[in-house]
Design brief:
Layout: H1 2-18, H2 45-62, E1 65-69, H3 81-98, E2 104-107, E3 119-122, H4 123-129, E4 136-142, H5 143-155, E5 160-162, E6 164-168, E7 174-179, E8 182-183, E9 189-195, H6 196-199, E10 213-215, H7 222-235, E11 248-250
Parallel strand pairs: 2-9, 6-11
Antiparallel strand pairs: 1-3, 2-5, 4-9, 4-10, 6-7, 7-8
Helix pairs in contact: 3-7
Length: 251
């Protein structure tokens, strides 16, 4: 009986191995599929009645319009409008939230989960871009360690950056770095605004582990900073906008 099981497993392995192909994924495209009443086939009305109050509550929180985007803002490497915007929001938020003027802002591309479409910005729009509970962290780095950080950013061909300009090679090497127009002083201390996840040295940015100090203010979730920024722009009669400015140049 054991021999029969062995032969059976062996035959199954041969069949499965024969199913292998040389096909590979060459591209992936994504988009939104609106979930509308068109999918309500054979709707369970009892379930609907239970869920409806919760849906109304969620819609009342997520659907209000808080501002307007001048155009579609996307996130991509080495530099993009949306990653620039989020890095600016972190850097600008350091002083009011932590009492520290940040020299540099860094936002990881992996933490940006959607684009910002042109037109109305809702609370839901912001949640789609920044769905995590990432909080502002202001880290003190010596210039030598900041250069290491810039080298790690170059190695992945870019992250969200504010207050600095990098020149990187196509092979992912750091060629030049300036902070507010000046070369980085290896002995000087710099204040870097980022998110707590990155401040721990995650996402290949190990240089943050060399921080000499770190401040994580309360009530400073990135998503909330983003919402506050959009509301300020709306109150000033301005649309949310950002551009590629040469912050990270690949040569």
């Amino acid at each position: 009986m054991k021999k029969g099981i062995y032969y059976g497993v062996y035959a199954a392995a041969l069949v499965l191995s024969a199913c292998g192909t040389s096909y590979s994924v060459v591209s992936v495209e994504g988009g939104k599929v609106p979930v509308t009443q068109a999918y309500d086939v054979g709707q369970d009305m009892d379930a609907w009645r239970i869920l409806q109050p919760y849906q109304e509550r969620i819609d009342s929180i997520m659907k209000p319009v808080i501002g307007e985007a001048a155009r579609k803002l996307e996130a991509y490497r080495p530099e993009s409008p949306l990653s620039n915007l989020l890095a600016d929001i972190l850097r600008d938020g350091a002083e009011p939230k932590a009492g520290i003027k940040a020299d540099v802002g860094v936002m990881n591309m992996g933490g940006i989960r959607n684009l910002l479409n042109k037109g109305e910005i809702t609370i839901a729009s912001v949640y789609e871009i920044a769905p995590f509970e990432n909080r502002l962290a202001v880290v003190t780095l010596k210039g030598a360690d900041l250069l290491d950080l810039f080298g790690q950013i170059a190695a992945v061909h870019g992250e969200g950056l504010s207050g600095a300009k990098l020149v990187i090679s196509k092979e992912g090497k750091l060629l030049d770095a300036k902070v507010e127009g000046k070369p980085v002083d290896p002995e000087k201390e710099y204040q870097v605004a980022t998110i707590d996840y990155i401040a721990e040295g995650n996402d290949r940015m190990e240089a943050f582990k060399k921080a000499t100090a770190k401040v994580e203010p309360e009530n400073a979730v990135l998503r909330d900073l983003f919402i506050e920024y959009v509301k300020r722009m709306e109150a000033a009669g301005r649309c949310v906008d950002a551009e590629v400015e040469g912050r990270i140049v690949e040569r």
